[in-house]
Amino acid sequence: MDKLFVYVDGGARAEPGEAGIGIAMTDAHGNVVDEISELIGRSTTEVAEYRALIEGCRRAIAYKPQSVVFFTDNQRLANHINGVFETREPHIKHLVESAIGLLNQLPQWRVNYVDERAHHRAPRLVEQAFHRNIRAQMTREKIEQVLLSRAATLSDEGMQKLLDFAERLQDTE
Questions:
Q1: Using CA atoms, how far apart are residues 4 and 1, in angstroms rounded to an integer?
Q2: What is the rounded CA–CA span in Å between residue 100 and residue 88?
Q3: Coil/strand/helix, residue 87
Q4: What does the pLDDT look like over 64-106, one tens digit per residue?
Q5: Is the Cα dihedral 84, 105, 123, 43 positive or negative?
Q6: Domains of the chain
Q7: How far is CA 4 from CA 30, 94, 98, 110, 135, in A?
Q8: DSSP symbols for 12-68
Q9: Measured in Å, how far apart are the chain's first and last C-alpha atoms?
Q10: 13-23: b or e for each residue (b if 16 or more CB lie within 10 Å)?
Q11: Is the pTM of this model over 0.90?
């Protein structure tokens, strides 16, 4: 592959809080090559942004492109990566070093800051990760409610059987 365009974003629901990353990769013709939308655990938005860039680098390396252009709506991240200024925060410094180590595995790269209005793909993927998690939680809660209502109608013997089954099931996972 000759050229990849990688749009990265990260976000958190609180500072810190549940965080997610979104990455959209396109080829030189604008065709979507890969999309990543996942939760990364508890983090700040700033750390999630750097983690999105790091994961975007990992994914881009796998395609062996000749050139990669990364886009972010975080000007501070772009400035750190491009060496415009350094950070004094050790945890951010570590993330910058990790990202640059991965970027340097690419033949040619650059990280561009773009206005958030022009940067819609990756933020959409971050939101999708949060929405998938909410849907999964709602589904689980619904199943738990059904189990509780059915368990309430069981005899003591039926409850014991249910408990035994639940323990066997847990042992297999």
A1: 8
A2: 16
A3: coil
A4: 999 999 999 999 999 999 999 999 999 999 999 999 999 999 9
A5: negative
A6: 3-134 (3.30.420.10)
A7: 9, 25, 20, 11, 32
A8: ESSSSEEEEEEEEEEETTS-EEEEEEEEEEEE-HHHHHHHHHHHHHHHHHHH--SEE
A9: 41
A10: eeeeebbbbbb
A11: no
